[in-house]
Please model this.
Amino acid sequence: MEHSSKTAADTSVRPFKVDIPQADLDDLRDRLARTRWNTGVRGLDDWSRGVPSGYLKELAAYWADGFDWRRAEDRLNAFPQYLTEIDGQDIHFAHVRSDRADATPLLLIHDWPGSFVQFADVIEPLSRDFHVVVTSTPGVGFSGPLSSQGWNTGRIAEAFTELMSRLGYDRYGVQGNGGGAWTAAEMGRIAPAQVIGVHVNGLVTFPSDDPADFAGLTEGEQARLERLQHFRDDKMGFNVIQSTRPETVAYGLNDSPVGQLAWIIEKFKEWTDPAKDLPEDAVDRDTLLTNVSVYWFTGTAGSSAHLYYEMAHDPAAWAPKERGTVPTAVAVALPSDVAIRRFAERDHDVVRWTEFDEGGNFLSLEQPELLTEDVREFFAGLR
Model:
C-alpha cells in the first residue's frame, strides 16, 4: 500500500494507491496450501452449522490458484483514492467527481463484513449525477488498524462529517447499508444542516415494549419480524463473540486465511438473497474474494471486530434518541430484510419507501442498477 508520509495532526488529503507487496501474495498462497482443515462432522454438507468444508475447500483453492489479485487491484485503482487523518485515525476513501456542474456530493458507507469494494459497481453510474465519496470505515481495510479505543458509531459519524467538510462539501447526501445505515442516520442527527438526505438499505428496525407496535402488522411485516427473531436466536454467534471478545477471535482470523474466508463468506451466504444457493450466485466470486483479500492483506479482522465491541459497550448507541429530522429513504429487499415501516418512521423522517422483490443486504453488489436508480430518484426529489 503506497501513500505519502504524514506528520502529527496532519489534516492534508494524501493520494493513495493499492499496491500489495508480492511477498504478501506469496505468503497468502503458501498459507492456503498449508491449511490444517477441520475434520468437522462426517456427512455434513449443508450450511446449517456454518460453512461446509467441501464448499470452502473449493473456494480456497480458487483463491490460491484462480483468483487474480493484481487484476482486482487494477480495478480498485481505477478510482482515485486518498488517505487523511481525522481524530488520530487514518481514513481511506475513494473520491470520484461528476462532470455535472450541479452534481450533489454523496457519501457511501459500507457495512461489516463489506468494504469500499462493495460499491465498485455503483460508483461510475452514480458519478453521472453525484460527486461520489466512498469511505472505508475506521478499522476496516485501508482505514485500519484502529488507532485507539472508542470508535463507536457516533465517533465514526463525526469523522465522516469532518471528511466531507475537508473535501469542501457543506451540503451532501449519505447512503449506507446495514451498520453503515446506522452511521448514515447518525450523521443526519449530528449535522442536519449539512446532510440533505439519508438513503439506507439493510436497515434494522426494532419494536418497542409497547404492545401496540404489533397491532395491525401485515403478513409481510409479521414475516420480517419473525426473520429478525430467527436472526437473534440462530445467527448472532459472530455478533456475540465480536461484541465481547474481539481480541481473542482476531488471533485465528489474522493467522489463517481460510479462517478469515469462512468468517466473511458465511455472512454473504446468510445476508444475500436467500433464493441464491451459494454466495457467488448472488455476488460475483472474484468480487467476494477481492473483499476478503482486502481484510486479509490489511490485517483488519481484529480491528473490524472491535467495532462491534465498541457499539455493544456504548451507552449512547442504545439510549433513546430524538427522531431524525433529515429526509430519509429506505430501500427494502423483501426476500431478506427485516425493516418495518412504522418502526422506521418512528425513528426517522421517512419520505420514501421502496420494496424490491430481489436482493439482500448487499444491494450495491446484488442489484446495483436498482439501488442506483432508487438513490438517484430520491435525491433528485430533494434538489
In short: Residues 3-7 have pLDDT under 50 and may be disordered.
